[in-house]
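[step 3/7] inverse_fold.run input=structure_tokens len=185
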């Protein structure tokens, strides 16, 4: 970082002695730092003579980048100073806990909804096709169609007669028992 500052000071002062004074270092230290930069780049950054110092084409090329680096370093230094002088930030652990719990509950709710949607079958998978009518069975209609003459056991007919008589229907001819059957239950 010092090399960047020395380079920029030398660009503005165009004199090694004044640039060294501006940077607060001895002139040989500034000269050595510039020489190290030139060795790293593999070419001279300044043309020197006894009276003046001027930028070379390479120096002109890298100057905007060095200025940008210098501004960024100044911002970093300023931010660090501001951070060190500001009061510490207190984190409210209770508020953080509430936020984290709310976040966890939200995530769980979303997972449950997605799972429910994935498990629930699609409506078309359970619904009957429109051309397939559902059959409804009327148990009374079935009982009235029962032919009591074909019943296998005479005991069933006798029990039916007794129930009908107890219900107040009196004697009913066995062929009409099927018609009265729903009333006997």
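[step 3/7] decode complete -> sequence:
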């Amino acid at each position: 970082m010092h090399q960047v500052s020395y380079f920029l000071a030398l660009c503005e002062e165009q004199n090694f002695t004044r640039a060294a004074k501006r940077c607060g270092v001895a002139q040989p230290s500034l000269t050595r730092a510039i020489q190290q930069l030139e060795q790293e780049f593999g070419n001279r950054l300044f043309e020197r003579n006894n009276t003046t110092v001027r930028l070379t084409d390479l120096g002109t090329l890298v100057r905007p980048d060095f200025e940008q680096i210098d501004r960024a370093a100044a911002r970093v230094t300023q931010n660090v100073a501001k951070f060190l002088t500001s009061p510490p930030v207190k984190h409210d652990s209770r508020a953080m806990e509430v936020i984290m719990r709310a976040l966890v509950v939200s995530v769980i709710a979303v997972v449950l909804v997605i799972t429910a949607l994935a498990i629930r079958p699609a409506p078309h998978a359970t619904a009957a096709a429109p051309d397939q009518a559902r059959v409804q069975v009327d148990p009374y209609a079935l009982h009235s169609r029962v032919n009591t003459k074909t019943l296998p056991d005479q005991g069933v007919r006798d029990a039916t007669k007794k129930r009908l008589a107890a219900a107040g229907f009196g004697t009913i001819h066995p062929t009409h028992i099927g018609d009265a059957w729903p009333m006997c239950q």
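[step 4/7] annotate
Residues 139-184 form one domain.
The first strand starts at residue 46 and ends at 48.
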